Amino acid sequence: MATIRWFETQAAWTEAAKSVQADVAQEGEWLGEPRSREGYCIACGGQTTFRLAGSDLSRANVRENLCCIRCRLNTRQRLMLSAMLANGGDQRQPGVQGALLEKTTRLYARSRARMPWLRGSEYLGDDRQPGRSYWWSTRWWRWRRTRHESITSLSYGNASLDLLAHSDVLEHVYDTAAALRESARVLKPGGVMLFTVPFLVDHPTSILRGRPDSSGQIEHLQPPEYHGDGLSRSGIYTFHNFGWDILEQIRNAGFRRAEAGFCYAPREGFHVDDASSAESWKMLPNILRGIR
């Protein structure tokens, strides 16, 4: 399994990431033509082909578009699965509990197959009750009963989970502090929160892009940014671009330890967008962790 290296400070992360730069250069344009390479997929547990979607090599976006042709998980999803398995996801003893804040995805299906104690959910809107299941679908022919959870108001009991994971959720939540406090509340002592966000690895502080005003509308402080979302074809608004102060926010929420990690393992599909760049280290697949 590919190794994720964890760091508690920007300086330590940056030093380690820059040390990988020579390996990236030696590897060369691994993702050049024909835009696919053989490798080992941790989700499939075997040899596969990684294929880069899209037609513009100058805007490869390896994080979202480099997929295994067998399981079809992209880099971000495979990194999350790898992190979950390495942080208690391989436990089999009775009583282990975990939650992934998505359910109607390939990542959840693969994760649940490896971690049968893992529960999944989706955010279905402010008018739903956390912990209840509702008929829901992004396509009219694929309705299913889906558990609703909100990261700012989870239905799980105090100190009830060993693992909590969410992928590209937090940047869409205005009240980051409330979401992190709620995450800490539901985790047992020693429990782990794993999450991905678009992370500005060269920014000490986060950027607040907008905030709700007194009427409930969004006051834009930066040009509006929307990301793809299963609930809305127009996408979901992005409140934050996170920098390194996210680690302090995690600690302030009640976690005894907060870390950022990266993984560089091109033969396992963990690569950078542009190996020819002198700053490829900024493109390394990254993930964040809080330990309760």
Count of individual beta strands: 18
- How is the CATH topology named? Rossmann fold
Put simply, the count of helices is: 7
Residues in helix, %: 10-25%
Biggest sheet character: 7 strands, mixed
Alpha-carbon distance between the termini?
A: 25 Å
Quote the beta fraction. 25-35%
- Structural class call reads alpha+beta
At the first level of CATH, the class is Alpha Beta
- Rg: 19 Å
Q: What integer is the average pLDDT?
A: 91
Kindly describe this structure.
This protein is α+β, with helices and mostly antiparallel strands. The protein has one domain: Vaccinia Virus protein VP39 (Rossmann fold, 3-Layer(aba) Sandwich), CATH 3.40.50.150. It has 7 helices and 18 strands. The strands form 6 sheets. It has a 7-stranded mixed beta sheet, sandwiched between helices. Strand 7 (133-136) and strand 8 form a beta hairpin. Helix 4 runs parallel beside helix 5.
Summarize the topology.
Blueprint: E1 5-7, H1 10-19, H2 21-27, E2 36-41, E3 46-52, H3 62-65, E4 66-68, H4 75-89, E5 98-100, H5 106-114, E6 118-120, E7 133-136, E8 144-147, E9 161-167, H6 176-186, E10 187-196, E11 207-208, E12 210-212, E13 218-220, E14 226-227, E15 236-237, E16 240-241, H7 245-252, E17 257-262, E18 286-291
Parallel strand pairs: 5-6, 5-9, 9-10
Antiparallel strand pairs: 1-17, 2-3, 3-4, 7-8, 10-18, 11-16, 12-13, 14-15, 17-18
Helix pairs in contact: 4-5
